Amino acid sequence: MQEFSEAIKLLAEESISPAGKPYFTISLSSVRSVASQFSCSIKEAEITALKNSIIPERYERSLGTVGGMQGQILLLNSRAAVMGLGGLGGLAAELLARMGVGTLLLIDGDSFSESNLNRQVLATEENLGEKKAEVSRNRINKVNAAVDAIPFAQMATEDNIESLLDGCHVILDCLDNLRTRFLLQETCKKLSIPMIHGAIAQFYGQVSTILPGDQGLNAIYRSFEKGKDNGIEKELGNPATTPALVAAWQVQEAIKLLINKKELLRNRLLFIDTLEGSCETIQLEG
Amino acid sequence: MIIVIVKGVADIGKLLGGTGKHEIALTSGSDLNNLLDILVEKYGPALFERLYINNGRELRKDLRLLVNGQDIVFLNGLNTELKEGDRFSIIPPLMGG
Questions:
Q1: Closest CA to B6 of B81, B91, B73, B77
Q2: Which fold has domain A78-283?
Q3: Which label site among A49, A161, A179, A192 has the fewest CB atoms less than 10 Å from its CB?
């Protein structure tokens, strides 16, 4: 371990901050080289660098918003699940990877279809018919090789959801139906995992952070009518913009939670109205 | 008389004469029950059916009604009295991902 740290220190480069303070960084090619030399993962190399006060260059611009190097270490050691890889989840998974959340479980049984092209960032004309979970994994591997991206290309059900999510630090609810959203909330409560809820329809979006035991979806949806599983979005559609806004806000909540920031959207529903150009934070019944 | 500002979100906006804000005149001392009666009278049975169940005896539970951004469950429910310039919104549940 000592030898590993020394090798990383030798590859570090000194930089000067705008405030005139010296600091050390390490490039992606150096991280790759030292990881290969010591037969360890890119993630292990990055964590060792950070523990030695050396910033992997890819996170240089993030550190001011994640609580510095200790915060980045927390993120790299975190495990998050993204449930649903459509408009919300496809972007959310990529943003989590760019922030360096170390393990991402990518859950969706669907494949890309043409009607996804208007708003799902992972959908391309070339990958129609391919599994969303596999496409997301491949994209994340290209964006940040430090992240362990684990695809699960099946729908979450009562039979598999508990074993699937056990061990996660946070789960992003990017689903498109209430039945699975409520199943997720029940499982999160059982496993004591926080979840970040997001939903969209037309020009509107909403986000809320639900800690285990909170009223959460019960306060948001109030009466869950079985059989009435799809909402107004089926009729009114979704543009490219609202899922991007909501996904970004969900990821910001997840990052705050993982680095132990206290100011969460808990028992509050952030309601975004892009038609009027307004956001409201609505108090929920706790 | 007082004027309140009414906004419907998504499909409810369409039923309220189009998305955007609408000014509705009420007699002083009116509450939300009075406002909803006026809206249904003005915009017709399609709005009534979207808002109520049980032949109009009960509002749909999944609709969120706000006065000045605050859910009416934290106010006086449908008996919440309205003042000049109050903003009233009806938000249906969003479920898409």
A1: B91
A2: Rossmann fold (3.40.50)
A3: A192
Q: What is the pLDDT of residue A224?
A: 64
Chain B contacts of A220, Cβ < 8 Å? 93
| CATH numbers and ranges of domains, chain B | 2-91 (3.10.20.30)
- Is the pTM higher than 0.90? The answer reads yes
Please report which confidence band the pLDDT of residue B21 belongs to, taking 50, 70 and 90 as the band edges.
confident
Q: Which residues pair with A281 in a beta bridge?
A: A270
Q: Distance between CA atoms of A187 and A203, rounded to whole angstroms?
A: 30
Delimit the domains of chain A by residue range: 2-72, 78-283
Say whether A199 and B97 touch across the interface (CB within 8 A): yes
**Would you call B10 and A206 a contact, using CB atoms and an 8 Å cutoff?**
no
At A44 the pLDDT is 98
Q: How many other C-beta atoms can be found within 10 angstroms of the C-beta atom of residue B33?
A: 12
ipTM, two decimals, is 0.93
Where do the DSSP E strands lie in A113-257? 148-152, 170-173, 195-201, 204-210
Selected residues 62-121 of chain A with any CB under 8 Å from a CB in chain B: 84, 86-89
DSSP-assigned letter for residue B28: T
Q: Measure CB to CB from residue A221 to each of B20, B62, B97 and give the nearest one.
A: B62
Give chain A positions within 8 Å (CB) of B53: none
CA distance A221 to A83: 19
Stretches in chain A below the pLDDT threshold 70: 224-230
